[in-house]
Design goal:
The chain has 611 residues and is of the alpha+beta class. It folds into 2 domains: 70-153, Penicillin-binding protein 2a (Domain 2) (Alpha-Beta Complex), CATH 3.90.1310.10; 241-610, DD-peptidase/beta-lactamase superfamily (Beta-lactamase). 36% of the residues lie in helices and 18% in strands. The protein is elongated. 39% of the residues are buried.
Length: 611
Amino acid sequence: MAVDLKSKKNLLIIGLLIVAIVMVLQLFNLQILDEQYKITASNNAFRYDVRYPARGIIFDRNGNILVGNQTAYDIMITPYEIKDLDTADLCSIFDLNIEDVRKTLADYRKNRRRIGYQSLPFVKQVSPEQYSVFLEKAYKFNGFSAIPRTIRDYPYNACGNLLGYISEADSTFLRKNPEYRRGDYIGRTGIELSYEGILKGEKGYNIFLRDVHNKVKSSFSEGEYDKDAVPGKNIVASIDAELQQYVEMLMQNKVGSVVAIEPSTGEILTLVSSPGLEVSKLASINKYYNEIVNDPLKPMFNRAVMSPYPPGSVFKLVNGLIALQEGVIDTATTYPCNMGYKVGRGIACHAHPSPTNLTTSIMMSCNAYYANAFRLIIDNPAYPNVTSAFEKWREYVKSFGFGLKLGSDLPGEQGGVLPSTEGYDKIHGKDRWKSLSIISLSIGQGELGTTPLHLANLAATIANRGYYHTPHIIKNAEDTILNQSFSERHYTMVDTSNFKKIIEGMYLAVNAPPGSGATAWRVAVPGLDICGKTGTAENPHGKDHSVFICFAPKDNPKIAVAAYIENAGFGATWAAPVASLLIEKYLKGSVGRKELEERIVNSNLIQNIRK
């Protein structure tokens, strides 16, 4: 028994010795060998100066710089070190109000203990010229220093809403994103927001040693533990900068948007929201922010992806495709039109030759034809009731991307509005509505709401004969795999063969001769084979909206476009010329129709909005 107790005692002693040795070795490692822990433990003896990275550059599809960087400086203040400050001279360098500065300094003195030896931003983003003057007089400004950083530079006067802006992270953002710190700048809108994680880079720092009087003495350990800032990665946008600039010129003094897509890829070639953010104001957004947000025309509102407009007559293409797929019409089906559809409350139409078949109904944009076709879809005896037929129609429409967010990489994208059975039950009463109750859907009116991005995607879908790629704004990014879903094809529920029948009508709408009843013959461009469809969307708040979608050329299309101009009237008068000039510029490199171009550029349609 005594032997067992002695053995246990020896084991306990040995165990304690092992623990003691391990602890001593670990303390030796922490205090002598591992300098990193000494840095952490002695943190109050060091000053860390942040090194901000340059944000990634944004190029257009042709290698032109859309967003670059230029050097600026943040002037920092360490309140504890301020001594014999020449306040007047400091204010003259940075154009500051001396009373405001004195008030700020008084606040710092009041909170001196809490602030300690922290360095705080005093003046942000000063120019290199101001920084040079500051350096010459630095001996007058104890407690002040400068940190270099980059600010955004915009070589092209275009793409304001697309590119977006950056600004300092606020407290709300910092609470949700603890990896950021006060003083960091973040993307707020556009590409800057969507690709913040790629563009931002990684901060670094320099460590300086303080003496016993808390004065900065030297770089710690000759910079061995300094960390270099890692620049953000560069991005190549799908945008054509020259084309974007051109379309923004066409859309000046107009309210609306224009979207152009490369059908084979879904890459967005141009996206204009007008009026939009002026590029000249992006770098100093805080200076102009109140002016921008108080503008009644809302330049920060990206109409191309946020505004759910009624599509108007361009939606006839969707109903025509559904009717073909359902087998309720064919290309030989004809209907008369005597200035409209006369059943029930009726739908008015413009004067044109009658009757029309599928091809000529598209060419002449006949309302009566699509009222008849829509009623055949909804009253189809192949379905047990109107509700079932309507739900099937809704499935078709959703397969084109309507009523859904398309999944683009554009911030704020909206899904638009697609009516539902439940909605109509509330309006009309359950099982008390029929095809005539919702006949306005036949011509793209009523409860439908689509963004211009949806309409451009429709043009691309028809150009592809039945499928689309998710529209997106970025082609590639440095050392980064982008969203692989952008390369996937999204097929509609309509057979390819039916698209060919619709396209023939779109081709004639633009290329048929004058006097044929074609709605868009004035915007034909020889050799480009533009296929299009006009629309005039009713607007209860004023003049009708002008709409046009198109693609070109007819075979192997290279571009698909939607133009939507608010309160502008007929689609053929304003939206169609804008879209066709865009296509001519893109496919030919220049525009030959100077008279038309001049008319569009010099027209002011904003006055229609303000009346």
